[in-house]
């Protein structure tokens, strides 16, 4: 190859590299930068937003939002975000100071009004509608894509619900008496279990409360004690041992347990754990 041809080839190669880098930068610039308060919100934003969004979750899924401490890196991330979506949990008391510290005048903060346990399919579906509305509000140019993705995901939620309900009916769970964390009660009742006693976190289990739950457990032949992972793992373990019941830890957030990084995987894990325990 001549010197002239080598120069031309080199120029073409550099041009291709520059074009490739420009293309990458262009694709990143167009993405909506979203920070989310919990992994439940994160999962929905990823499902609905797809390639149009870049998502950053704030509270680790194994932690309770009420026990979370904001870090300097979180403030830096929020300072460049377009949107901050909050699940609207009572424990999200850090939000005002966090947003103030980020000093981001273009940031839009939207708190959900979807009440209840988002692990329940119908409530998860309502949360999808809320996320859809929030994304369209700040990025109307991609509204059609968001709407299509939300419709598809809501159908997937319905399919998941029907599949789970058939398993629960087959297992005849309505005859199973349970003592549970108050933050798992709604989910267990949706699943069909009979919750006969509840407790909050480990700090609420003073001797008198424990004895009362043990008495209930023995009287009602309770076979499962269910804890909320994000509150106090194994909080009811002593109660379970006293009444001869099985002790389980369920998660209210995707990613709280291994291989549960989406809502579908998390609810499958919870249900399969329950079904395995009552066999």
What would you note in describing this structure?
With 279 residues, this protein is an alpha/beta fold. The protein has three domains: 1-28; 31-160, 3-Layer(aba) Sandwich (Rossmann fold); 171-278, Rossmann fold. It is 51% helix and 14% strand. The protein has ten helices and eight strands. It has a four-stranded parallel sheet, with helices on one face. Strands 6-5-7-8 form a four-stranded parallel sheet, with helices on both faces. The model is unreliable at 1-28 (pLDDT under 50).
Search tags:
4-stranded parallel sheet; alpha/beta; 14% strand; 279 residues; disordered N terminus; globular; Rossmann fold; 8 strands; 51% helix; 3 domains
Number of strands: 8
CATH topology of the largest domain: Rossmann fold
Strand content: 5-15%
CATH superfamily of the largest domain: Nitrogenase molybdenum iron protein domain
SS-derived structural category: alpha/beta
Task: Sketch the topology as an H/E string, one letter per element.
Answer: HEHEHEHEHHEHEHEHEH
Q: State the CATH class of the largest domain.
A: Alpha Beta
The main sheet orders its strands as 2-1-3-4
Q: End-to-end span in angstroms?
A: 75 Å
Number of helices: 10
Query: How many domain regions?
Result: 3
Mean pLDDT: 90
Uncertain ranges: 1-28
The geometry reads as globular
State the major sheet.
4 strands, parallel
- Report the helical percentage: 40-55%
* Rg, Cα atoms, Å: 24 Å
CATH architectural designation of the largest domain: 3-Layer(aba) Sandwich
